[in-house]
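Quick illustration, no need to memorize.
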Amino acid sequence: MKTGVWIRSKARPLGYLLIGMCMVGSLASLFVLLVRVPALAVSRMDELYGTLLGAAVAMAFVIAALLINLTLMVYTATNATVPQGPRS
């Protein structure tokens, strides 16, 4: 019983922490995409491959953040308290 209460109290902050970590990961991959790939690429093929890889990693982090957000919304909707009518 105590474990369920603890999980319910920590679900939202943990979700926000994970979304923040996904944001940091996507920003880091965009930094690699915009700054490091053009500096390190020797040929056009290297630049294309680095650009595609950086974009794929950024999109993976964005999709992970959206899935975490969806999970939090479903969790909040299913665990919402239903107001009771007036008690007599």
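The chain has two helices and no strands.
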